[in-house]
């Protein structure tokens, strides 16, 4: 493997040098404007994207608007190797380069770290947010075990908001959008100086959409979405060497399902899975109902399904430079998240099973960094991190539709109630040193020590649901008065895990605007507990930490006088004790012994002049379990592909703008994405998968040329491709359920800037 990497390193170096030499002969420096330079802070210091020896995708706020991106979900269509899944518009499960576990439990911790203005977002139900007033999004791929560190075995996604600036006069922008299915969006942001050293910026956004799907049972459309988000910040410089920023943000996202049910039994209550448990197979579900093949239709008897997620956060960032060569940064942050959900389990016309779910989390974190400033032969960053989280979760499940005695074989209609509190304390110390070994040759070495303690107090009770109906919510108060069997399962324990992770990177610039880098990195995801204990003590689990080691060869090039950017990477990743979530009749969380991911990705941007832009990205991911025999259900998944890890992900964008004789500019744009077959379960079952999906979007924009007004018409999913975004194997209960994509959407928008 190392020998092959040496050969590839030499080959890429030779090709890059030749391409640059050819470019210098071919083009004059003034021939074209060139590809936009983007400043990123992936290494916790401001650097040109092309100078950072990390494979990353950076999307500016303007680029996100041009793609009509609304929420976190939309980033995946512009980023290779990134997959978002989830059962509703308010929840996100994320996979990068094949790594992720798909758990929708309240205490789930993703393999990809989410950061808002350098604050780690620990809650799994705080991830899918509106993309409000952002300067850029940085998607860092591969283990980020040093400066970011916590739970970043797959990578990290950093959201950087636009900052207030005392040097700028009053400025702002307002945008309204109307689209199919009653969609109405509004967004506004404004910044203003309060003095020569102080400024404020505020932003807010609203989104509403009526459901594009038809509930054939109640004869209504659904689901309805209502999103609202806000952010405010004040920046001050009380002294020439001291910067202070106070920010607050919040959101309220409301949405719900629906999921598409697919029957899996040979006959009602046969508890025998049919030969073709797909929509094409037209098998009945538990009660004998056969769902329609139309993906625009769902079949639910429940009127009040909902998913209500609320978030609030505040952070104080201090930047102090006590001297010319040292900078100190302190980030103090508080995050609070709340989720209230009522969802069907089966999504059928019968009242088989309902889930009432309430969870709250609060998180306090503190990070301090000390870093060198300026260009030196040796630069460095050291720091420490602390966080304290408290999560409470209450879940009630009804099983009325399965008849009396479903759990205890007694005479009552039954259900379960689960209640737990989990406390997590994290400590870390980290450091990274950047050595200039020779002209164009640098070495980066970094280490991070992590210590994480988790304590859980969990109980599971069986309930007597006689007299209840589908309108009965299983709240904590209701559960307390209807206990049938108390403490069916309990867990009260605490565990502590420690780890040393980091990276070593050698990067070399053979000629100007060409960078080659070779990285060895390690990532760590702390162990945890199964928050989905549903039936009994056999589901109680403690998973070991997930550890990842990755070797990556990458290159970054700006060719032909910076009109062509060609970046890429090849990597080999080994995963030990991968944490795997297996949904089904029971919700299992366990470790797979080993997995490996081999892959590569390239990105190309061509901007030969002011008018034309072409973006293209492609990634190949070969991800499979090397050794995985489930201890809980006895199945052997060795050799299976990892869930939500399509072999191919591709995206592209082309735009052309031209000036109009009467003034102003017209820009035509088309963007597309593709991902190959995706398996949603560790079983690699084609019945729980989606074949290749190609999506095409288009946009036409007129702006007045003075930077004030712009008007757009757009279409998303032009070919009206309906497909499964995620799937959940519950075939032994008589059904599988799937999250369905949105159909074709047409819309118009107008923006005013000043």
UniProtKB/TrEMBL annotation:
Protein topology in the membrane: Multi-pass membrane protein
Domain TonB-dependent receptor plug: 49-156
PROSITE patterns, per database record: PROKAR_LIPOPROTEIN (PS51257), TONB_DEPENDENT_REC_2 (PS01156), TONB_DEPENDENT_REC_3 (PS52016)
Main location: membrane
Chain span(s) of sequence motif TonB C-terminal box: 737-754
Gene3D superfamilies found in the cross-reference section: TonB-dependent receptor, beta-barrel domain
Record carries keyword Phosphoprotein: no
Signal sequence residues: 1-23
Superkingdom to which the source organism belongs: Bacteria
Annotated keywords: Cell outer membrane, Ion transport, Iron, Iron transport, Membrane, Receptor, Signal, TonB box, Transmembrane, Transmembrane beta strand, Transport
Chain ranges of the TonB-dependent receptor-like beta-barrel domain: 279-718
Compartmental location: Cell outer membrane
Pfam families found in the cross-reference section: Plug, TonB_dep_Rec_b-barrel
Entry similarity comment: Belongs to the TonB-dependent receptor family.
Name of the protein described by the UniProt record: TonB-dependent receptor
Source species of the chain: Sphingomonas colocasiae
Lineage start: Bacteria, Pseudomonadati, Pseudomonadota, Alphaproteobacteria, Sphingomonadales
């Amino acid at each position: 493997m190392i020998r092959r990497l040496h050969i590839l390193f030499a080959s890429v170096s030779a090709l890059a040098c030749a391409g640059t030499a050819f470019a210098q002969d071919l083009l004059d420096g003034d021939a074209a404007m060139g590809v936009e330079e983007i400043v990123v802070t992936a290494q916790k210091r401001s650097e040109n994207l092309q100078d950072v020896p990390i494979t990353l995708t950076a999307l500016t706020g303007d680029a996100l608007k041009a793609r009509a991106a609304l929420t976190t979900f939309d980033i995946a269509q512009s980023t290779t190797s990134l997959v978002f899944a989830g059962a509703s518009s308010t929840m996100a499960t994320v996979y990068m380069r094949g790594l992720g576990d798909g758990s929708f439990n309240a205490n789930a911790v993703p393999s990809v770290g989410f950061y808002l203005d350098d604050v780690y977002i620990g809650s799994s139900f705080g991830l899918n947010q509106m993309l409000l007033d952002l300067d850029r999004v940085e998607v860092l791929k591969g283990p980020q075990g040093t400066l970011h560190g916590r739970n970043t075995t797959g990578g990290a996604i950093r959201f950087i908001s636009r900052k207030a600036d005392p040097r700028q006069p009053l400025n702002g922008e307002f945008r309204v959008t109307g689209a199919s299915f009653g969609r109405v969006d509004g967004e506004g942001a404004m910044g203003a100086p309060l003095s020569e050293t102080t400024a404020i910026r505020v932003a807010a956004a609203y989104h509403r959409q009526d459901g594009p799907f038809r509930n054939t049972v109640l004869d209504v459309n659904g689901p309805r979405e209502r999103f609202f988000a806000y952010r405010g910040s004040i920046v001050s410089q009380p002294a020439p060497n001291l910067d202070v920023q106070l920010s607050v943000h919040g959101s309220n996202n409301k949405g719900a399902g629906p999921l598409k049910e697919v029957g899996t039994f040979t006959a009602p209550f046969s508890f025998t899975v049919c030969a073709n448990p797909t929509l094409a197979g037209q098998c009945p579900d538990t009660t004998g109902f056969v769902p329609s093949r139309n993906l625009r239709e769902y079949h639910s008897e429940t009127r009040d399904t909902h998913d209500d997620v609320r978030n609030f956060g505040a952070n104080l960032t201090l930047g102090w430079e006590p001297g010319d060569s040292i900078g100190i940064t302190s980030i103090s942050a508080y995050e609070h998240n709340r989720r209230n959900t009522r969802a069907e389990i089966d999504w059928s016309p019968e009242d088989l099973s309902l889930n009432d779910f309430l969870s709250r989390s609060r998180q306090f974190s503190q990070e301090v960094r000390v870093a060198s400033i300026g260009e030196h032969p040796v630069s460095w960053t050291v720091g420490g991190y602390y966080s304290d989280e408290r999560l409470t979760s209450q879940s009630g499940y009804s099983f009325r539709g399965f008849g009396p005695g479903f759990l205890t074989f007694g005479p009552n209609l039954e259900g379960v109630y689960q209640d737990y509190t989990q406390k997590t304390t994290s400590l870390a110390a980290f450091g990274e040193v950047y050595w200039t070994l020779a002209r164009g040759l640098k070495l980066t070495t970094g280490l991070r020590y992590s210590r994480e303690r988790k304590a859980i107090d969990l109980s599971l009770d069986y309930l007597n649901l006689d007299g209840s109906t589908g309108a009965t919510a299983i709240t904590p108060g209701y559960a307390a008065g209807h206990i049938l069997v108390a403490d069916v399962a309990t867990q009260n324990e605490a565990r502590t895990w420690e780890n040393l992770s980091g990276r070593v990177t050698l990067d070399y610039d053979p000629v100007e605007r060409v960078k080659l880098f070779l990285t060895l990195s390690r990532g760590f995801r702390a162990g945890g507990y199964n928050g989905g204990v549903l039936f009994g003590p056999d589901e109680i689990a403690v998973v070991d930490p997930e550890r990842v080691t990755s070797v990556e060869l990458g290159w970054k090039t700006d060719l032909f006088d910076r009109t062509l950017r060609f970046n890429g990477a090849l990597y080999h990743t080994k995963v030990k004790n991968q944490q795997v979530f297996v949904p089904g009749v029971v919700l299992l969380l366990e470790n797979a012994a080993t997995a490996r991911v081999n892959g590569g990705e390239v990105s190309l941007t061509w901007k030969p002049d002011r008018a034309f832009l072409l973006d293209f990205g492609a990634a190949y991911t070969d991800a499979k379990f090397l050794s995985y025999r489930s201890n809980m259900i006895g199945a052997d998944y060795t050799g299976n592909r990892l869930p939500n890890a399509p072999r191919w992900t591709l995206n592209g964008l082309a735009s052309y703008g031209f000036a109009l004789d009467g003034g102003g500019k017209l820009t035509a744009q088309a963007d597309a994405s593709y991902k190959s077959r995706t398996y949603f379960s560790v079983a690699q079952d084609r019945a729980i998968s989606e074949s290749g999906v190609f999506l095409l979007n288009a946009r036409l924009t007129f702006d007045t040329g003075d930077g004030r007004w712009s008007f757009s018409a757009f279409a998303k999913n032009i070919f009206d491709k309906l497909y499964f975004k995620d799937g959940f194997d519950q075939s032994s209960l008589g059904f599988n359920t799937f999250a369905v994509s949105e159909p074709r959407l047409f819309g118009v928008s107008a923006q005013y800037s000043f």
